[in-house]
């Protein structure tokens, strides 16, 4: 599908299996989520522009490369996006972070916003939204609505696991936003959970259930 990149790297797929496994305990779940996000960060930043930079190695001068273009801001959707953001910051420690609090109303499955705090210059930055789960797509769509209202252009969306219906809904609402994920599952159950999925990512990350 256009605009959808499935990251099939064996390390990503192995870690996704650990995250899907119901016997993986909270501490390990959070650590593996962070590691997987680092690998996904590598993929989502693959096309960042570079520019030549003149440096001296201990032996000789060289025209090397450095990242050019817009500076990054990661936008974790609370709560479950937090561990992913940590993994991305491991790779891009100079990035800024905007926090967006959303929860799904269990009855309507609509996203309800409860917090938004972003760097003042977010509109000038490359924005990467991170949330492990793209289920109905309501949370991702609300997040991107919010960010575009704040002036953000050309954002990207990274998740760990998506439902087919969520990918389609997000592509329909925000066709300009490319999506990266480790897998797409076909089923979304009546409660909006991805099946087989990995369960409730927020609860499994923070041990709240
Ligand atoms: O695509 P959707 O149907 O909107 O579902 C995905 C959302 O659901 C989960 O958050 P949740 O509402 O459980 O909040 P939490 O992270 O605080 O647990 C998940 O982290 C996404 O944000
Ligand atoms: O399967 C799902 C769907 C939404 N949110 C989750 O954490 N898991
Ligand atoms: Mg949750």
UniProtKB/TrEMBL annotation:
Domain Phosphoribosyltransferase intervals: 7-208
Regulation: Allosterically activated by GTP.
One term of GO molecular function: uracil phosphoribosyltransferase activity
Cofactors: Mg(2+)
Class of the enzyme per the UniProt entry, highest EC level: transferase
Keywords assigned: Allosteric enzyme, Glycosyltransferase, GTP-binding, Magnesium, Nucleotide-binding, Transferase
Cofactor note: Binds 1 Mg(2+) ion per subunit. The magnesium is bound as Mg-PRPP.
Reactions accelerated catalytically: UMP + diphosphate = 5-phospho-alpha-D-ribose 1-diphosphate + uracil
EC number of the protein: 2.4.2.9
Binding site for uracil: 194, 199-201
Nucleotide-binding recorded as keyword: yes
Pfam families xref list: UPRTase
Annotated InterPro entries: PRTase-like, PRTase_dom, Upp_B, UPRT, UPRTase/APRTase
Chain sites annotated for binding 5-phospho-alpha-D-ribose 1-diphosphate: 79, 104, 131-139, 200
The protein's annotated pathway: Pyrimidine metabolism; UMP biosynthesis via salvage pathway; UMP from uracil: step 1/1
Protein family (similarity comment): Belongs to the UPRTase family.
Role according to the record: Catalyzes the conversion of uracil and 5-phospho-alpha-D-ribose 1-diphosphate (PRPP) to UMP and diphosphate.
HAMAP family referenced in this protein's UniProt entry, alphabetically: Upp_B
Name of the featured protein: Uracil phosphoribosyltransferase
Organism in which the protein naturally occurs: Sphingomonas morindae
Upper taxonomic lineage: Bacteria, Pseudomonadati, Pseudomonadota, Alphaproteobacteria, Sphingomonadales
Gene encoding the protein: upp
């Amino acid at each position: 599908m256009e605009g959808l990149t499935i990251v099939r790297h064996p390390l990503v797929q192995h870690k996704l299996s650990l995250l899907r496994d119901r016997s993986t305990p909270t501490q390990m779940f959070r650590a593996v989520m962070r590691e997987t996000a680092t690998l996904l960060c590598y993929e989502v930043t693959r096309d960042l522009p570079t520019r030549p930079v003149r440096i001296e190695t201990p032996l000789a001068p060289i025209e090397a490369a450095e990242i050019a273009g817009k500076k990054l801001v990661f936008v974790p959707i609370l709560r479950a996006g937090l561990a992913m953001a940590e993994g991305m910051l491991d790779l891009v420690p100079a990035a800024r972070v905007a926090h967006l609090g959303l929860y799904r109303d269990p009855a309507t499955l609509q996203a309800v916003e409860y917090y938004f705090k972003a760097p003042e210059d977010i509109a000038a930055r490359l924005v990467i939204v991170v949330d492990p789960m793209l289920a109905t797509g309501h949370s991702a769509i609300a997040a991107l609505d919010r960010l575009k209202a704040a002036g953000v252009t050309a954002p990207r969306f990274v998740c760990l696991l998506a439902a087919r219906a969520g990918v389609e809904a997000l592509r329909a609402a925000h066709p300009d936003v490319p999506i990266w994920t480790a897998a797409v599952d076909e089923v979304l159950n009546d409660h909006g959970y991805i099946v087989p999925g990995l369960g409730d990512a927020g609860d499994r990350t923070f041990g709240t259930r």
